[in-house]
Backbone:
């Protein structure tokens, strides 16, 4: 009878250890949540003052090129769910609006990039913006599609 109690005790301890180890292995690697997408980036180091562009030419500040006004379509085949198509509106030589017109990204994951990146690209006047955490494929595909559209606007 003592042997039976000992076996039950060892089995119980083994199960508890297994559960403890399994739950530890499933914990998040990132103990600190990412900053919100609308959080401001740290200020860049001070650079020498740049000479202002002549009034007749648009500034190329922040990666903005002198694009031809119009609406341009771009495509990237590298979305998590396949093709990502965008429409980029250029006005006064600048990116005025970015709209994702086709995507098959996962709702709640890749769809976050679809919701957030277009405004970030317009604000930055560049595709050199941070990707959305957890939506790497969708973020990259949107940036590639915008770059494809902007090559047509040059």
Residues:
């Amino acid at each position: 009878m003592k042997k039976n109690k000992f076996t039950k005790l060892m089995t119980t301890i083994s199960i508890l250890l297994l559960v403890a180890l399994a739950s530890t292995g499933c914990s998040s690697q990132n103990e600190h949540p990412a900053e919100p997408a609308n959080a401001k980036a740290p200020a860049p180091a001070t650079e020498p003052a740049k000479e202002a562009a002549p009034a007749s030419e648009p500034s190329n500040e922040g990666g903005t090129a002198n694009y031809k006004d119009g609406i341009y379509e771009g495509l990237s085949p590298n979305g998590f769910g396949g093709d990502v198509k965008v429409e980029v509106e250029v006005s006064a030589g600048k990116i005025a609006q970015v709209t994702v017109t086709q995507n098959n990204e996962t709702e709640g994951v890749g769809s976050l990039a679809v919701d957030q990146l277009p405004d970030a690209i317009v604000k930055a006047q560049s595709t050199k913006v941070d990707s959305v955490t957890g939506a790497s494929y969708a973020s990259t595909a949107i940036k590639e599609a915008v770059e494809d559209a902007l090559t047509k606007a040059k």
Notes: The first strand starts at residue 70 and ends at 79. Strands lie at 70-79, 82-91, 94-102.
